[in-house]
Amino acid sequence: MKNIVLIAGAFYGLISIILGALGAHAFKKILSVDKLLSFETGVKYQMYHALALLLLGFSLSFTSNLEKCAACGMIIGTFLFSFSIYLLAFSEYWNVNLRILGPITPMGGICMIIGWACLLFYFIKSN
Q1: Segment holding 76, helix H or strand E
Q2: Model pTM?
């Protein structure tokens, strides 16, 4: 589990840097200001969680269910949240109706919240 968390954190960090650079330069020319702001929100949350996953991977042993739930919530939630935002930001440019992804973004947010709540309960329980 530790290795999965570290790989996910490094992968999310790598992708967020690439997408952030593209958003600041190439995508600025093709996305509306509104869509670009949404895209940047996805990038920010992805990087925050990349860093959090790396910290968890180096700090936790993943022997308890709360530790595993915290990591899984952040991994799954970040994917659902950020990547649905990326696709929604481009739906207008691609001229594709991706409104079905609209509910996926808050589901990802809920998963991230669950991950953080599990981490909080783990810290409370371990003291």
Answers
A1: helix 65-94
A2: 0.93
- Ordered DSSP codes for 77-118: HHHHHHHHHHHHHHHHHHT---GGGTTHHHHHHHHHHHHHHH
Q: How far apart are CA 21 and CA 1, in angstroms?
A: 30
Q: Both tokens of residue 8?
A: 């996910």
Residues 26-51 as b/e (b if ≥16 CB within 10 A, e otherwise) read ebeeebeeebbebbbebbebbbebbe
pLDDT in tens, 16-29: 999 999 998 999 88
In the structure encoding, which two tokens stand for residue 41, read together? Answer: 């929100």
Phi, psi of 100 (to 5 degrees): -60, -25
